[in-house]
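ok so i was messing around last nite and threw this chain in just to see what happens. nothing serious, just curious
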Amino acid sequence: IIGVPDSTDTIGVEKRWNLIGPNSFTAPVGSITTDPPSILSTGFYAYDDTGYVLATDLIPGRGYWTKANNPGTLHFNVPSNAPAGTPKTSARDYLAGASSIVIEDGIGHYQTLYFGPPGPDEISSAETFEMPPVPPEAGFDARFASGRMVEIHDPRPESGLSYPIRVMSWQPTVTVTWNIKGDGSVNYGLGSFSSDGSTGAIHVIEHRGSLVLSADEAAGLRLIVGSRGLPQEFALRQNYPNPFNPSTTVAYELPRAERVSMVLFNTLGERVMTVLDGQQEAGYHAVTISAENLASGVYYYRLTAGSFTSARKMILLR
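result:
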């Protein structure tokens, strides 16, 4: 047979949610183009027994949800045939650095929701993270009440911002697990209230942790966000996690702008790493220390900011 290999699949989309997929080959999201340009308002969502996730590759024979703001055509390109300059998706990069909560029902279903300040470039609005329709007769679903997987707040939010979370589960309890990232300048909490609002509690969430909620409490779940304002004094916090392998995060606070340095020492007092050295503004800061080239053992990290000096102990455990 003589011919030219088919290196492009095309499919039409309407101004709505569309369930689509390639026919012939796996298409990386970054290689997909549209005609006319920029007609997609969301990424591509896959759904399995656990819940919705943003896809990085679209596989033949599987369906993916995407929302178009205008009718047009999608072109699924073989990566080597994709037009030069095709923008790569940055949505997953943003999610990798965002704080998150995972809501799970105990029988294998879970959904991850994300939140944080705006990201670079186009990740400044949560609209691109609108989630597809709730699956018919689904036994489990979790999303922000806005219908989104992500809520983006101001870097210095006003106190008391509240983002309701809609949880649907047939199980008597759900578990909420969180992973809070950032420099510590924002306070986060989970409010769990009974469906009639008569009882409830607010749980401060920091670093990593989890709690179990009854179905009634989960029905009134909300994320609460507030700013801490500027620090009142210098402070160096204990690294987290500790012990660690191979990286850990150190938070510190500056009430005013200063030249800041952080140095890592071994138990002999020998300097093994300069973590940072430079001018920094007042506020809450955090730095990640990567110890991939260090041996297991006890180390000390020392922060110097102007006339302020403080040191703490950390343990690297391979």
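not much to say yet. The chain is about 5% helix and 45% strand.
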